[in-house]
Design brief:
Blueprint lengths: L1 H8 L2 E2 L6 E2 L7 H6 L15 H6 L7 E7 L4 H11 L3 H17 L9 E4 L4 H7 L3 H6 L8 E2 L3 E3 L11 H7 L4 E3 L7 E9 L3 H12 L4 E9 L3
Parallel strand pairs: 3-9, 4-5, 4-8, 8-9
Antiparallel strand pairs: 1-2, 6-7
Length: about 220
Amino acid sequence: MKHAFINWLFESHCVLCQSPVPAALGLCEYCLEDLPLFDLSEQKNLLYRPDIIEMFPNCEFDKLFSCAFYQPPFEQWLKQLKFNNQIHYKNALQQVITKQLSTFFTPDYPLPDTFIILPLHKSRFFQRGFNQVTQVWQPCLSSFNLLSDSLLRNKKTHAQSKLTKAKRVKNLKDAFICTADMSGKTVAIVDDIMTTGATLNAATQALKQAGAKQVWAFTTCLTPI
């Protein structure tokens, strides 16, 4: 009864077909099923997909999880959330991530020791007022061990979207520092979009210098090259 009243009071609609959905959702079940998502039941580690490893041949992390390619409708949802803080797209993205995580983490599949959402530099955080990756991913990781403040972005970098691949790598050199002992641990790092892998590689380097045995990269989308 309480949920019905909340749904009536805060009526929500599917961001794709505009049909009514419960207040906590952004997609109806039919649109969710129709989205072009990666088939993680067939191949959990996307680094083993020939098309993806050809796009990203220099990955330093050990496994790659992602929901889909950075194309419509995900491109619009992520841009509107990141640059205009249109948070009604957050629910849709969380449904997609939750669906893909449930496919990836089958009961017999090993879990990482911890998840770390990649931080913004403090100046970028104060400018934007929020970390859009945390907004979207943190609720999806509530059943996992999630660490904060153990990986710091200690270097103010230029916006990656305006740089070439070579300049992205240079821009991110020594951008992260790990303040915790990660000896022998499998650490999963989380970001929204992987374009060249430079940000994820820089974070991987910092974690492996701190002793991490493996680093898994989790992203919402991959930019097709």
